[in-house]
Structures are given as structure tokens and as C-alpha cells.
């Protein structure tokens, strides 16, 4: 089987068993690639910068976060991109001695006023191509491809020609918005698309046809797509043709992989898949999925990446090993030498001039305007910028929430002078979904601590706890404990013998999910935990964070008992 030249996050396990999801936390839209003995997965990053996550493995069991290739202004500028826009569905391939990366930068996904992105027919999907000699090296400036739809992919045929496919968006009234999969030749020499596009697959009655990838095997062209929408009805469909341009016949069993009719399945929302062959010819499918909370049914970890084997039948069609097309929590590992990676540290001291790779920020290609790791050595300094939720200059640095139960903490050195200066610890999904434990200043109370919550599906959009007075001139430790849908904050003044003071309120962690929504909100990213700073007076008042700690743990009825 010839897949787009070989297609690849960072959890290690002691037994030769794959535990799904292999990339926990917000890692959607996987593009899976093998080059020699190395496997890579590229996933979407949406409005988080730098763009595209690439994970690396040698055995399909153990994964490490390797790099993010879109890291400079000439490649990517997402200032103004609405929530859940930005980088969608990268496609990673290898041909002609180099790596190829196709991606979409979404500038408008429907109506963007009022913080929402739904309701308008016309969208801006800009598709680009970058290349690199080394996957973790310098990537090129982008080549613009088209803006006709999203989820682009590049297929390298065995005759040397290259073909660009993407979902076609049709904004016209009375037409199917998801208008099929279009194909067009790409000239690497001329760096542009050639000829006319051809609609090779209109989709099935499941609708929402997207996420195309092409492969070639035994003289057949295979086209994989996602259908049914990226929520509970998501599914992986497969079709084939003797001709690249079709017509394509559907898999006789229907969807190759889905949980759409199985609410009991622990992995839901399965879809948006890609295929790869191991060195011995075994086929594997990587796909996005979600793990709902038992109590609330919401996927607070966002859309994650899972992987499992497929087997080819005598009829020339692949199927899951159980024959039922169900996503699996585990699978026997392939016959490859085990290759674990060192565990990522739980605590970051910010002693390096580079931001630890687990962390990202929002939208801006100019991070020096938002934060510094050298202005005060050993600290992450955030410069107070725009409001939390701003689509432009927002000083918020965070990492993915990757488990349903975790503890996170930090210490902040911040002396606000008025109520428009804030800094603290935040659990963040987007502008309309967050819990923010922050320090500020009040004319009566002086320096104080409180929580601001943005509630997407509540009667009130914003809620505040009562302020807690704090003495000036003291660093403050901040802490969050998350146990599934329950979220608690605590604080303590730094110093020996100081005990944690738990805030009495229990907050709803489930709002940090795709499923917590209201009209006009887009819901495609995931939950992050990190630090933020605002100065609405425009004086860029800094806040210094000495360290940040994130630890995953078992469920605790009393999260402060451990």
C-alpha cells in the first residue's frame, strides 16, 4: 500500500500494548506518516501558536512532542482569527527527499461578531503548503494553494505527479455546504495548482463530507473521508476507484470506523482518519476521538488522537480487527522494538530562555510582545495586554489539560495598582469558556484575589466570586484541582508553614468542552491550564511566574486530601 509517503504525542507504557488515546488532550485531525523507522503524527492547533503539533514515535506505543513547524510571522499570523479558527487539519507527507505539510488557516467560520462563529454562509479557508528537509528543522515560507474549502491533503502518485484535494465549501442557498471532495494537480516546479478542479466524491447521506486523504494499493485509488460532523455522529468512510478522478465506489460495510450508533463506547466522536503501513505491511488507522465525562457527557479533554490496526479482506477492503468498525481503547502493539521516551517533567522552573515545548500562546507571531523568559531570569514574565479572550494581543501562556483529574499550581509576583491590572492562573477553552483565579487591586480592598468565570450556557455570561484581601509585597501561590466535572481553586502566601486556603466554591469544569455551548459559539479546540496577565490601561504592567507545575493523578473525592 502506498500511503502519502509515511505518516505521527508523548505517553509511555511498560507493556507492548497501545493505550488509546495515544495523544491525550487537544490533538485533533491526525495525519499519520512513516519515514523509514520513524512515525509522525501532525495535529491541528487552531488559534494556539506556534501552529501544528508534530509527535514522533518508533513503535506506535510511545510518543513524544517533537516540534511545531509554523513558528514565524512569514509562515503564520493569526491575529484576529476567531476562537476555533486558525490552523485546521494539517496533512503531513514525505516525497522527493523532503517533508511536505499542507494546512488551512481559517480566518472566518461564519458570523464572527459577538464572540461567535456560526450562522453565516461565507467562510474564509486559506490553504497553504510548506516543506522541510528535516521534520524538526527549518520549514519554508508557505505557498498559497486555494481558499475553496478546508481539510486539504497532498497525494504523491507513483508516477511522480502530485495531487491536491480538499473539502469544497458551497455557500449558496439551497446547496449542500459540504459539497464534496475536489481534486487538482499541483506543480512543485511552478509552485501552483494546474488545470481545473474535479469533484471526485460528493459524499454519502451521512453528510458533512470532509478530511480527504488519498492512497494507492494494488492498482486501486482509495479515498478516505470523515462524515457525519465532528460530534457524536462522526464517522470514517472509505471508497475506491481504478481511476484517480473516479467514479469512487463505497466500502460495502458502510463506515470503516464510527461510534455514532454506540453510546456505550468509551471512545466517542471517532472520525477524521489517516492510514499508514508498518515496515512489515500491517495497516494502521489514526483517528480523532473524544472521552466523555461519565457524569456530564462532555469531552473536557477536547478531540484526541487514537490508533488501531486494520486488516485487509480478500475483497480488497480494510476492516477493524473486531469486524464491527468500533474504536478501541487498546490494541496489541506492532512487532517493533520498544522505544520509550523520557517522561516530561511535571514542574517547569522557567530557567531556559525558551518556553517549554508543552506550552503555547494565542494567535500572535510576536511572542516578545506578550512574554519573556529573559527579562527576569528564572521567571516567565507576562506583559499585561488585552482582555482575556481577546483575538489580538492576549498575554496567556498555557498547556493542554491531558487527564480528567489533575493538579496545577504556580507562584506569581504581581503588584497591581488598579482594577484594570490582573494576573493569575486560568483554566481556559476560549473567550466564552474559562475559570480565572486572578490578583487585582481595588480602591477599598487594595490587592485582592477573586475568580472570574465565563459561562457559555448559563443565565449570566460572566460570574465573579467575592474578593479576598491580600497583603501587598507578597508572592502568592495559586492552585487548581480538577476531578472530572469538579474544579476547585486555592491560594496561599508564599513562605514557610503557610497552608493552602481553599476557595469555598466548586466550579463546573465541564464548561471547558466542545459540548458546552450557546448559539454563535464555535467548539473545536480543548481545555488548557496556564497563566495570564491583563493591563487594560495600556501600561503593560508585568507579572512574573517563578514556576508552573502540572500533575495528573487518580480521582479524589476530596481533591485537597493528597
UniProtKB/TrEMBL annotation:
<dbReference type="GO" id="GO:0009044">
    <property type="term" value="F:xylan 1,4-beta-xylosidase activity"/>
</dbReference>
<dbReference type="InterPro" id="IPR051795">
    <property type="entry name" value="Glycosyl_Hydrlase_43"/>
</dbReference>
<dbReference type="InterPro" id="IPR023296">
    <property type="entry name" value="Glyco_hydro_beta-prop_sf"/>
</dbReference>
<dbReference type="Pfam" id="PF17851">
    <property type="entry name" value="GH43_C2"/>
</dbReference>
<feature type="site" description="Important for catalytic activity, responsible for pKa modulation of the active site Glu and correct orientation of both the proton donor and substrate">
    <location>
        <position position="151"/>
    </location>
</feature>
<keyword id="KW-0378">Hydrolase</keyword>
<dbReference type="Pfam" id="PF04616">
    <property type="entry name" value="Glyco_hydro_43"/>
</dbReference>
<comment type="similarity">
    <text>Belongs to the glycosyl hydrolase 43 family.</text>
</comment>
<feature type="active site" description="Proton donor">
    <location>
        <position position="210"/>
    </location>
</feature>
<feature type="active site" description="Proton acceptor">
    <location>
        <position position="29"/>
    </location>
</feature>
<feature type="domain" description="Beta-xylosidase C-terminal Concanavalin A-like">
    <location>
        <begin position="347"/>
        <end position="551"/>
    </location>
</feature>
<keyword id="KW-0326">Glycosidase</keyword>
<dbReference type="InterPro" id="IPR013320">
    <property type="entry name" value="ConA-like_dom_sf"/>
</dbReference>
<dbReference type="InterPro" id="IPR006710">
    <property type="entry name" value="Glyco_hydro_43"/>
</dbReference>
<dbReference type="GO" id="GO:0005975">
    <property type="term" value="P:carbohydrate metabolic process"/>
</dbReference>
<protein>
    <submittedName>
        <fullName>Beta-xylosidase</fullName>
        <ecNumber>3.2.1.37</ecNumber>
    </submittedName>
</protein>
<dbReference type="InterPro" id="IPR041542">
    <property type="entry name" value="GH43_C2"/>
</dbReference>
Amino acid at each position: 500500500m502506498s500511503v502519502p509517503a509515511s505518516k505521527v504525542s508523548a505517553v509511555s507504557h511498560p507493556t507492548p500494548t497501545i493505550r488509546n488515546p495515544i495523544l491525550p488532550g487537544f490533538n485533533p485531525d491526525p495525519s499519520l506518516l512513516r519515514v523509514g523507522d520513524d512515525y509522525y503524527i501532525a495535529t491541528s492547533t487552531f488559534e494556539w501558536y506556534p501552529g501544528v503539533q508534530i509527535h514522533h514515535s518508533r513503535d506506535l506505543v510511545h510518543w513524544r512532542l517533537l516540534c511545531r513547524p509554523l513558528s514565524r510571522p512569514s509562515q503564520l499570523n493569526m491575529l484576529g482569527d476567531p476562537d476555533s479558527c486558525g490552523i485546521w487539519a494539517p496533512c503531513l507527507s514525505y516525497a522527493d527527499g523532503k517533508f511536505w505539510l499542507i494546512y488551512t488557516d481559517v480566518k472566518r467560520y461564519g458570523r464572527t461578531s459577538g464572540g461567535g462563529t456560526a450562522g453565516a454562509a461565507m467562510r474564509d479557508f486559506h490553504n497553504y503548503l510548506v516543506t522541510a528537509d528535516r521534520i524538526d528543522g527549518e520549514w519554508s515560507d508557505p505557498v498559497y494553494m486555494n481558499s475553496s474549502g478546508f481539510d486539504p491533503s497532498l497525494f504523491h502518485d507513483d508516477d511522480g505527479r502530485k495531487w491536491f484535494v480538499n473539502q469544497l465549501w458551497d455557500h449558496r442557498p439551497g446547496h449542500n455546504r459540504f459539497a464534496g471532495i475536489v481534486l487538482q494537480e499541483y506543480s512543485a516546479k511552478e509552485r501552483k495548482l494546474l488545470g481545473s478542479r474535479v469533484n471526485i466524491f460528493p459524499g454519502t447521506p451521512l453528510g458533512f463530507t470532509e478530511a480527504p486523504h488519498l492512497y494507492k494499493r494494488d492498482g486501486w485509488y482509495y479515498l478516505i473521508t470523515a462524515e457525519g460532523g465532528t460530534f457524536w455522529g462522526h464517522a470514517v468512510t472509505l471508497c475506491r476507484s481504478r481511476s484517480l478522478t473516479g467514479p469512487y465506489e463505497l466500502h460495502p460495510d458502510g463506515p470503516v470506523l464510527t461510534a455514532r450508533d454506540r453510546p456505550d463506547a468509551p471512545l466517542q466522536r471517532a472520525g477524521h482518519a489517516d492510514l499508514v503501513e508498518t515496515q512489515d505491511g500491517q495497516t494502521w488507522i489514526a483517528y480523532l476521538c473524544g472521552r466523555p465525562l461519565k457524569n456530564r457527557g462532555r469531552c473536557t479533554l477536547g478531540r484526541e488522537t487514537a490508533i488501531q490496526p486494520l486488516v485487509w479482506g480478500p475483497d480488497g477492503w480494510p476492516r477493524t480487527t473486531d469486524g464491527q468498525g468500533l474504536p478501541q481503547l487498546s490494541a496489541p502493539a506492532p512487532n517493533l522494538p520498544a522505544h520509550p521516551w523520557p517522561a516530561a517533567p511535571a514542574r517547569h522552573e522557567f530557567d531556559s530562555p525558551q518556553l517549554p515545548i508543552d506550552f503555547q500562546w494565542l494567535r500572535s507571531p510576536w511572542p516578545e510582545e506578550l512574554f519573556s523568559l529573559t527579562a527576569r531570569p528564572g521567571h516567565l514574565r507576562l506583559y499585561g495586554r488585552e482582555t482575556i479572550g481577546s483575538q489580538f494581543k492576549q498575554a496567556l501562556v498555557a498547556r493542554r489539560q491531558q487527564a480528567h483529574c489533575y493538579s496545577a499550581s504556580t507562584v506569581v509576583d504581581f503588584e497591581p495598582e488598579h482594577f484594570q491590572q490582573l494576573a493569575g492562573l486560568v483554566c481556559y477553552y476560549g473567550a466564552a469558556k474559562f475559570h480565572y483565579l486572578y490578583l487585582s487591586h481595588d480602591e477599598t480592598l487594595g490587592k485582592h484575589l477573586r475568580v472570574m468565570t465565563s459561562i457559555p450556557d448559563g443565565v449570566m455570561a460572566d460570574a465573579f466570586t467575592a474578593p479576598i484581601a491580600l497583603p501587598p509585597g507578597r508572592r502568592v501561590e495559586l492552585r487548581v484541582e480538577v476531578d472530572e466535572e469538579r474544579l476547585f481553586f486555592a491560594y496561599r502566601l508564599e513562605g514557610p508553614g503557610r497552608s493552602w486556603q481553599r476557595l469555598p466554591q466548586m466550579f463546573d469544569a465541564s464548561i471547558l468542552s466542545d459540548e458546552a455551548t450557546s448559539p454563535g459559539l464555535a467548539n473545536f479546540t480543548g481545555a488548557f491550564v496556564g497563566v495570564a496577565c491583563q493591563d487594560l490601561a495600556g501600561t503593560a504592567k508585568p507579572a512574573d511566574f517563578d514556576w508552573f507545575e502540572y500533575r495528573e493523578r487518580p480521582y479524589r473525592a476530596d481533591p485537597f486530601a493528597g
